[in-house]
Amino acid sequence: MDMGLKLKNRKAAESKLSRFVEDIIVPPRMVDIIVDGEVNDEYLRTLEILSKKLKFVEVDSMVKASKALKDVQPELERLRQKAVSKAFEFMIQKLYALRKPKTNIQILQQNVLLKYKYVVLFLKEHGKEIYAEVHAAYVDTMNKVLSAHFRAYIQALEKLQLDIATSTDLLGVETRSTGLFLRGREPIKNRSAVFALGERINILKEIDQPALIPHIAEANSQKYPYEVLFRSLHKLLMDTATSEYLFCDDFFGEDSIFYEIFAGPFAVIDEHFNAILPNCYDAIGLMLMIRIIHQHQLIMFRRRIPCLDSYLDKVNISLWPRFKMVFDMHLNSLRSANVKTLWEDDVHPHYVMRRYAEFTASLVHLNVEYGDGQLDLNLERLRMAVDDLLVKLAKLFMKPKSQIVFLINNYDMTIAILKEAGTEGGKTQMHFEELLKSNIAIYVEELLAEHFSDLIKFVKTRASEETSSSSEGPTVSDVEPLVRDFASRWKAAIELMHKDVITSFSNFLCGMEILKAALTQLLLYYTRLSECVKRISGGSTLNKDLVSISSILYEIKKYSRTF
């Protein structure tokens, strides 16, 4: 039993000694590969073995105390220095390739550099000062390469920019006052892109499409609103940043290096954006950019890449005050508008109201999925200002009926544009629907009063009086002129009303609805007159002159068929 234990202990000691010798000995083949070998797969495997030996002699306290180490350590140290030196030269050479023009950086990173990421790890563990130099060289290289790349891309994009709006392109600016100073630009009245969203909304549906290739767009003489260039630039930024962030994490084992590299590209983009933003007077474009940034934040969140979080937040924070400033310029243009120069002797929809409707519809549409309360408050302020301006414009018409027609036409057009934008049920639309309804009621009374004023006055004041011995109610002599007058010209009067409506209202369907409402109201008035006649003593003598209700209904249906 004692002999067996001794044998077991001896074998354990031999095994330990064998491992010790294997861990500290430096085979000649290993020296040859480290000193003279090419940096290839075999070299990388040998580098890993050297790393294990270096760690072994550093960590094990018994090894440090052994006499054997004193013989081997100088050799190991020389080999470490040679490996570090060779690794440095190799990596610097590879990094230099990144600077060559037209190099596909991502392919070089994935297909070349990542193959040798153990070289960087070796430096990190066994040559910290040299690793710091490689780290600094990579940061410097990529900072310069990517900064130049983004600078060139931005310069190319700037050639594609289509100017949408200037500081004078505002809701309340009179048409003629802008065109005089803007050579080569379309008059504001016809440039709907300033106020209408139109196809510009498509940019949000193409949010993750590849970035524009400027030289192709330029060759095709294409120009784009700034938000298209903005999306393209940030798409390139997202893709480049994602690739670089993942590479840095994989290659260097630390993602913080990303922020050192991108300090340059961020500065280049900031310089461009800080030059563009103070000259941007395109409120719709600004709101589109705000929505683009939000979509890009979601994309980066889904990618689980946090490296652009603070940058995208900063851009978003800079866009909102600019949007608010331009929005307030529009608001103030309505509040301070010169009513006399804006007024035209035309009851059809006013171009300022069309601008307002398109502008509001655009911003409401862009707010549907976001429910931004601040934007809703601003739109409410804008609506109050345009309400006030429209009433002032209406008062410049001499005839009260023209004033009402003007308001109806403008309210109807505004509602139609808001509906087209798919904003049914919005507070703004409901507001204008109420105004339209109340003004149509006023117009109907005005229209009927032009042709049947005596009849209406009688119905409103006398028709409900009771005919009894104690009070003097209406008599045959009171109603006879009204009955005979109506019978002699009711059809002609309706035809005149029809012509009046046709010429007054821009929207044919709206006009026909108004005519129908007027004829229905006329029928109610005449029905009350007929009932009054039947109650009057001797009223039956007028039966032959009374127009039957069915005849009036037939006439109403005849006009209803026209729409």
UniProtKB/TrEMBL annotation:
GO terms for biological process: endocytic recycling; Golgi to vacuole transport; protein transport; retrograde transport, endosome to Golgi. It holds the Pfam family Vps52_C. GO terms for molecular function: syntaxin binding. The keyword Hydrolase does not apply. InterPro entries: Vps52, Vps52_C, Vps52_CC. Residues 1-123 form the Vps52 coiled-coil domain. GO terms for cellular component: cytosol; GARP complex. Its main location: Golgi. Residues 140-443 form the Vps52 C-terminal domain. Keywords: Golgi apparatus, Protein transport, Transport. The keyword Protein transport applies. It is found in: Golgi apparatus, trans-Golgi network. It comes from the Eukaryota. Coiled coil: none annotated. Belongs to the VPS52 family. This is Vacuolar protein sorting-associated protein 52 A isoform X2. It comes from Elaeis guineensis var. tenera. The gene is LOC105058968.
